[in-house]
Amino acid sequence: MLRKWVKGIFGSGEEELKSISLSQLVDLAETKGEIGSTFRSLVNNGYKKNGVVFGAVQLVASAVGTIPWVVTRQDTEGEKVEIDNHALLKLLKRPNPRTGGSRFFEQMIVYLLVGGTDYILRVKGGGKTRNLYNLRPDLVSLRKPGDPESGWVYTPDPNQLERKEYYEPEDILPLHIFDPLNDFAGLSPIGVASLTVEQSNYSRKWNRNLLKNNARPSGLLKATGNVVQLTKDQIESIEAKFAEKYFGPSNAGRIPVLSGSLDWVTTGLTPGEMEWIQGQKVADRLTAFTMGVASQLLGDTESSTFSNYAEARKSLYQEHIIPLMTWMRDELNNWLVVPEYGDGIVLDFQRDSIDALQEDRALQWDRVGKADWLTVNEKRIATGYDNLTGPAGESIITQRGILITPEGEVLGPG
Length: 414
Prior knowledge:
This protein is an alpha+beta fold. It has helices at about 1-10, 15, 20-30, 40-45, 50-65, 85-95, 100-115, 190, 195-215, 230-245, 275-290, 310-340, 360-370, 375-380, and strands at about 70-75, 80-85, 115-125, 130-135, 140-145, 145-155, 165, 170-175, 220-225, 260-265, 345-350, 395, 405, 410. Helix 5 (about 50-65) runs antiparallel to helix 7 (about 100-115) and helix 9 (about 195-215) packs antiparallel against helix 11 (about 275-290). A three-stranded antiparallel beta sheet has the order 2-1-11.
């Protein structure tokens, strides 16, 4: 029964289906272009088949990969002091022998945005973490389903399912895009956008075949002349044969050749009348929105969401990348930094290095510089710098160059 159903759906031959396995059945389903819930389907039919999805994921991943990390500690006065050569920075610059820091975080974001989940494995040596690895999400599972304290199972080779590696709960950090109905798996943005992604994919495939064969309108077959009333079986047989030859993206534009007393009656709208291209643009914009990227950043010059490219890029960082980096930072501090280096050491990322936000930073400096009621230290804190020690930090310097000491003495132009 299963073999007959699969043959009817996918058109596979009898010999091909005699020894079909579950993984082969999944492969057959994926060739139809539908986006399923499996990681492989999300990759093959979403990330690898849709330019908007690929562009959005790569844009976010490459942006995250270029933002540098810093390590700070609190001194005796409670002020943050940056540590330039901390071991944690060396680890993040070269997480493992095969991967540099930028590529490591790019991989993390690709796994997150495609599958909704990333797993980070740490390998210790001498009591400290020596290497970090991103593990393919579909190859990692809990030893006992629903029990995070049971530990982890990793299958390094999907072609050798019997080969497994087991890890303690603290050895792997699971990062999930929050799914309200699942505490142990992430929600894939591609899965959320699957309908618009499939629509876009089918539209492009349909248009490609229309260009190859010239467009043709939709219609119906009408019996004419002295044709007797067709039986139900005859109607179903004609419909099945016609659908097999002329329906679907691969048959777009094929011209039906009729015989006997059958006429073709045009009933549908042409692709132009359906505003096909406009519908495809809408689908692409919805896909980009779901992936957290303005379509203007992916080549959509007609979108009016933002007045210019710079505003769209700034919004990408403010509304998507910085919140994503903040979440990653907090998880790494909780899982890696605090247990190994203590509460005094903090991992953070450098917002000042983000070019898209420099204009905002310049405006902030201008506002702070004009605030004549703020002390030197208050201005330094507002612009991201540490306090100065001694009376200099507690003094006020106005725009006119007047110096007001902590004791209230006024010095400068009279």
